[in-house]
Amino acid sequence: MRKAKRLTYFNYVLIILVTLIFIFPFIWMLIASFKTQAQIMSTDTALFFQPTFDNYRSVFGEHNFLTYIINSFIVAFVSTVFGLILGLPAAYAIAKYKQQKLGFVILIARIIPGISFMIPWFIIFTKLNLTDSYTALVLSHMLVGLPFIIWIMIPSFEGLPAELEDAARVDGCTLQGAFVKVLLPLVMPGIITSSLMSFILSWNNFMFALVLSGEKTKTLPIAIFNFMSYSEINWGALMAAAVIITFPIIIISLFVQRYIISGVTAGAVKG
Amino acid sequence: MKKKKTSTLLLFFIVLVSGLLFACSNGNDNGDGSVELRFIAANHPWTEAIEPLLPEFEKETGIKVKFEKYFEDQLTQKLTTEFTAGSTSIDLFMMRPLQEGKLFNLNGWVADISSYTDDADWEYGDFTDPSVNSLKADDVLFGIPIVTEREILYYRKDIFEENNIEVPKTVEELMNVAKLLNDPANDFYGFVARGQSAAAVTQFSSFLYGFGGDFFVDGKATLDTPEAIEAFQFYGDMLREYGPPGVLNMSWPQAAGLFGQGKAAMYTDADSIYPNLTDPEKSVVGDKVGFTLFPAGPNGQTPYNVTSWGLAVNSKSENKDEAMEFIKWATSKEVVAKLQDNGVPGPRQSVWDNQQGTDTFPSELVDVINQANAIGREYDRPLVIKVNDARDIIGTVIVAAIQGEDVEAAAKAANKQFQELLDDEK
User: Do B207 and B326 reside in the same domain of the chain?
Assistant: First the structure.
């Protein structure tokens, strides 16, 4: 018993050690966001320094980050919602009717490097007069999120016994009704995992947003480069902006963490 | 039954997509018939300084200007994508003549603006020669310079005074001083400059010219000439013997940071980054920084003197005259003087000669810049299409030299690769 306990302490020490190493960059980022440029560069003020809030003031004041946060949120949220609307029935159909080939075709969209879409898309969206609009960004980000949602959801749906749907149909549900009322609640962990991932992928997406967004719809990953210019890098404000970008994702992730884990393993063991 | 289901779904999808298109589409039409220029700009002090002046221009001419700002690499990516797609919506843009001028010009993306130069009020002749030459190809003018820079030597006035040392005038003296002041035991180094391979190429160029070398001459790569090898060797020795540890990872932010922390006696880099060294928020040696002309090599004093940024007009723009109107305003004597007052080194000699345009610069720096304006080369990197590839190739020799490897062998290997790159572009 005593031995087991000692082992546990040892484990805790190890866990703390490993965690410290992993969150070190994050802590550095957090600390640096409260420093002036000179303090960041100096090793004398690595841990003890006079904190300043100027970086955050500059991020929200001069650089108007609230607009970019709203832009990013709209694009990530809408593209995830539409990804779910199209992706869930698709994943269900692929799982139920065993359309592996179709599934593979969808995966091709993710295999092709995203950069090869950029010029055709730019031409199309210019012709439609849609550059610098949320529509273009939402549609392009769905290319990233949608296959992801479908591929996470296929095993989740495969894990459900076919009898469930049959039972619902017998009780008078339409096919659509059975899907929405009976099947979807059962695959909730998968839905949460996939929508969170889709949200994060969109939130962090840089390439598509660079070409398709303009001054009105600039998203966070593009805006963070506001702090880098030809002959100056504003490290403090850059770090403050990085904290602001990371923060919502961390909060959401912590909140739904337990769903993610059961989502990833769902379908792994069929019983 | 099945058919009905398909059509319902199809209908749903159509409604969904068209709803999206309808809800979010937005035109660029002003509605009142006035011209609005789309200007793709870089994150740069120039942009920050000109934005507050814009209302003057808009009031004067009735032309509106819409800015979009990007970090330089993203700017290139954005412009390249849009131009490849044949975009007509960009009217004018900022570009780096040395980095992408050749590519943009050969692709026909930049409009020929030679015909606009005879405007007497604008006084085109006032731009310094090196600054305009960066934006010319076979006498065709495809851009107007807005920001210029030169390589200079930054040094610590206090340390030089304490040790009673003269400011180095030649590269030989530079090495002697670096040797004398180098004190690694106390974390103080004689010399710092960029050591990160591709980034170092531009700041190495002044050394290369000083030793009598060049990147290529008449389509022949000249990285392995005795002069070039000597220059590589010198640059490598300086940074290996008298430079800080980790110099191989240093571009200007790291090197300037180190100098700003008071850990180096001398530093060669572009004059445009001087605020990073003199601003007390960013540097602890602010009032102790001295400026001097880049030291002479065995072959004379030839620091680079380049146009780092220029303005150009999209060749497919429908508002070329209005775009030129903006460029003329933005590069007029009055506006350049105001911009220079904000610390943006401009291309006009008359402004450099004038007290008002140079007030904000340290007076020593103005002297150095005025001297450098008379000399210098108009390029700091090989003027090819694949500038980045060329810089990577040349960077390998710099890295080999800093690491103390066989410079001659590295130069020969790089020269061969560079020659292939040059041949490919013919």
Answer: no
Residue B23: inside a domain = no
Residue B124 lies in a domain: yes
- State which residue of chain B sits closest to A134, comparing Cα positions: B24
* B14, B17, B43, B91: best to mutate for the A interface, most A CBs within 10 A: B43
Q: How far is CA B365 from CA B138, B278, B347, in A?
A: 33, 12, 15
Q: Does the distance separating the beta carbons of A41 and B282 come in below 8 Å? A: yes
Q: Do A232 and B276 touch (CB under 8 A)?
A: yes
Q: Residue B301 in 3-state DSSP? A: coil
Look at residue A203 and tell me if it is in a domain. Answer: yes
B240/B166 same-domain check? yes
**Residue of A123, A139, A229 lying closest to B44 (CB–CB):** A229
Partner residue opposite A211 with nearest CB, options B42, B45, B81:
B81
**Does A109 map to a domain?**
yes
Q: Note down the domain range covering B183.
A: 149-305+379-424
In a domain, residue A251? The reply is yes
Looking at residue B286, which CATH number applies to its domain?
3.40.190.10
How many domains would you assign to chain B?
2
Question: Is A231–B275 a contact, with Cβ atoms under 8 angstroms apart?
Answer: yes
Among B154, B134, B156, which Cα is nearest to B145's? B134
Its pTM stands at 0.77
Instruction: Examine the pLDDT at A82 and tell me if it is beyond 90.
Output: yes
Mean pLDDT by 10 residues, chain B (426 residues): 52 54 43 79 90 92 90 88 88 92 91 88 87 86 92 94 93 94 93 93 94 92 94 95 93 90 93 87 87 93 91 93 93 91 87 81 88 86 90 94 94 95 88
Reduced to 3 states (helix: H, G, I; strand: E, B; else coil), residue B308 is strand
Closest chain B C-alpha to A128 CA, distance in angstroms: 8
Helix (H) or strand (E) holding B92: strand B92-95
Residue B156 domain-assigned (yes or no): yes
The verdict on residue A270 lying in a domain is: no
Give strand pairing partners of B221.
B216
Residue whose token pair is 């018939």:
B33
Cβ neighbours of residue B80 under 8 Å, at least 6 residues apart?
none
Identify whether residues B153 and B292 lie together within a single domain: yes
Distance CA A269, CA A158 (A): 11
**B297 and B200 in a common domain:** yes
Which tokens is A164 given? 């469930």
Q: How far is B406 from chain A (nearest CA, A)?
A: 33
Q: Say if the ipTM goes beyond 0.90.
A: no
